[in-house]
């Protein structure tokens, strides 16, 4: 969502970083570009003015002029102010109230209220182990109640039986009674919306609020709304006193202005963001992590959390044992592909890795087809158990049979076999030589196709030694491992390995079991 804003700010900061000193004129020119970038990203004008003034007050003062790296200091100031605009810290949905805790979902029609209601219900059921009841109060939109019932079945959450003759207020009363008598922990009410704000909508929603007495009132807003998002947020907040905001379609091609505008205009926290159509595509909103992504600094913490969520400690331990033996069969490759798909594919992972923005763009420009993962998984599934365990058995006749079963050409089987062979060779070297061997692979074959990355030998030895010790690595083994971009060194945690290890998983050689043994062969879209 913030891609265009991130690109613009990245170019502005690249021009500042190379300077040994910054004059007031340099700062003014950069601030003009920042103002223009924010306006183009659909941030409201009043928020842009306040943001630029805050940055200016700090950027033209002694904080920058006395800095050893003034360009980096300006980036830090912008980062800090972005966090201040988005909210100082993450705020979760508050369930600290007598059961049943009532959540009231409000917003305009088409913003994704009903789908978001089901997503939140699934999240509370799975993560918080809560018993949830859903109720649709939308008596105007055709099939709105039926839609919520179907979604409730999909996420295995109870929904209030539909009585078509009731008014929204009557449904709210019945839902509250059913939730109390049924022993439910949480009641979520999905209200009706309009294509625009009108008095009738507000009166109805206020009446429902008076009856339901919700503990949380969540405003659902489409991230693609643009400049009008601030008016929507203020209108609902003025009449209902909302407690939080949920942004939907954050994975779309919006320019990010809605997130920056609404938090600053209402003072109410953005609590959740919808990042896809699937029922589990809902994430907590972390202001500092979003600011990191906007400024191209990646999001290592979210990457670790994703790894911990999709990779069990038991699987990680099994993989670690196999790698120590230098073993890596086609079943292992399939598991890696499945895990990578669950974590968002190559694009999703690269968006969270510091300094990987340019590589992600290069992949997009090369028209790379991530559906190749699905084809490769289908190919491996078409093999017998013995063939997966012993890839050397794959002769010409077996490859023809597998190709027919997977619905692909024999050349696809050959590519997969070659890819597996390269990865298996790498794993054998890792098993024998540890980090040194892995560093050589990553610095050579693995990263060669991506334009190469700088060598750790060019970094400060004291910094390398500190990174190694904190991650539980022998400093002597770090030779040859790719380094992060110098300008990102401040943002990349020195204990990345420890983070992954504590999550029960890891990047190769940085503590825990290797989760990304190689970059799977990515084909071009046909």
Notes on the structure:
Mean pLDDT is 75; it is low at 435-458 and 477-526. The radius of gyration is 26 Å and the shape is flat. With 526 residues, it is α/β, with parallel strands linked by helices. It is built from 23 helices and ten strands. It folds into three domains: 3-86, Up-down Bundle (Four Helix Bundle (Hemerythrin (Met), subunit A)), CATH 1.20.120.140; 101-294, Rossmann fold (3-Layer(aba) Sandwich); 300-524, Signal recognition particle, SRP54 subunit, M-domain (434 Repressor (Amino-terminal Domain), Orthogonal Bundle), CATH 1.10.260.30.
Write the layout of secondary structure elements.
Elements: H1 3-17, H2 24-40, H3 45-59, H4 62-65, H5 70-86, E1 101-106, H6 113-127, E2 132-136, H7 144-154, E3 158-159, H8 168-181, E4 186-190, H9 199-212, E5 216-222, H10 229-240, E6 244-248, H11 257-266, E7 270-274, E8 282-284, H12 287-294, H13 300-310, H14 313-324, H15 330-342, H16 345-352, H17 357-365, E9 368-369, H18 372-381, H19 385-389, H20 396-406, H21 410-448, H22 461-470, H23 496-502, E10 523-524
Parallel strand pairs: 1-4, 1-5, 2-3, 2-4, 5-6, 6-7
Antiparallel strand pairs: 7-8, 9-10
Helix pairs in contact: 1-2, 1-5, 2-3, 3-5, 5-12, 6-7, 8-9, 10-11, 15-18, 16-17, 18-20, 20-21
């Amino acid at each position: 969502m913030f891609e265009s804003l991130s690109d613009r700010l990245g170019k502005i900061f690249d021009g500042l970083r190379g300077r040994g000193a910054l004059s007031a004129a340099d700062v003014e020119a950069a601030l003009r570009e920042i103002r223009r970038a924010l306006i183009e990203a659909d941030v409201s004008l009043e928020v842009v003015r306040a943001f630029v003034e805050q940055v200016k007050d700090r950027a033209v003062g002694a904080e920058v002029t006395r800095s050893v790296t003034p360009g980096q200091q300006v980036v830090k100031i912008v980062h800090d102010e972005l966090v201040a605009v988005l909210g100082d810290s993450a705020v979760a949905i508050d369930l600290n109230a007598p059961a049943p805790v009532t959540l009231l979902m409000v917003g305009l029609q088409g913003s994704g209220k009903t789908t978001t209601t089901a997503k939140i219900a699934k999240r509370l059921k799975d993560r918080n182990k809560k018993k949830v009841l859903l109720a649709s109060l939308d008596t105007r939109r055709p099939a709105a109640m039926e839609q919520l019932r179907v979604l409730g079945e999909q996420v295995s959450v109870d929904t209030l039986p539909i009585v078509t003759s009731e008014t929204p207020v009557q449904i709210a009363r019945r839902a509250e009674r059913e939730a109390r008598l049924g022993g439910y922990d949480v009641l979520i009410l999905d209200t009706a919306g309009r294509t625009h704000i009108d008095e009738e909508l507000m009166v109805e929603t206020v009446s429902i609020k008076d009856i339901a007495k919700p503990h949380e009132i969540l405003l659902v807003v489409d991230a693609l709304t643009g400049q009008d998002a601030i008016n929507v947020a203020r209108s609902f907040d003025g009449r209902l006193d909302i407690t939080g905001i949920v942004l939907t379609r954050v994975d779309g091609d919006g320019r990010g202005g809605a997130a920056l505008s609404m938090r600053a205009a209402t003072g109410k926290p953005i609590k959740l963001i919808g990042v896809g159509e699937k029922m589990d595509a809902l994430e907590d909103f972390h202001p500092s992590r979003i600011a990191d992504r906007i400024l191209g600094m990646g999001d290592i913490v979210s990457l670790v959390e994703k790894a911990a969520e999709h990779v069990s400690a038991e699987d990680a331990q099994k993989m670690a044992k196999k790698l120590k033996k230098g073993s890596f069969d086609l079943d292992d490759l399939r598991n890696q592909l499945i895990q990578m798909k669950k974590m968002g594919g190559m694009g999703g992972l690269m968006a969270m890795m510091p300094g990987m923005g340019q590589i992600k763009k290069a992949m997009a420009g090369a028209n790379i087809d991530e559906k190749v993962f699905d084809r490769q998984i289908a190919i491996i599934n078409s093999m017998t158990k013995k063939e997966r365990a012993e890839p050397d058995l794959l002769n010409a006749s077996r490859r023809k049979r597998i190709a027919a079963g997977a619905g692909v050409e024999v050349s696809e089987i050959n590519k997969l076999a070659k890819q597996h062979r390269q990865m298996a060779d790498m794993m054998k070297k890792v098993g024998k030589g540890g980090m040194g061997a892995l560093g050589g692979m990553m610095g050579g074959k693995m990263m060669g196709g991506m334009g190469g990355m700088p060598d750790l030998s060019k970094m400060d030895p004291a910094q390398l030694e500190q990174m190694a010790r904190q991650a539980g690595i022998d400093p002597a083994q770090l030779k040859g491992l790719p380094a992060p971009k110098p300008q990102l060194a401040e943002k990349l945690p020195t204990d990345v390995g420890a983070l992954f290890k504590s999550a029960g998983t890891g990047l190769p050689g940085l503590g825990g079991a290797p989760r990304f043994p190689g970059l799977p062969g990515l084909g071009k879209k046909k």
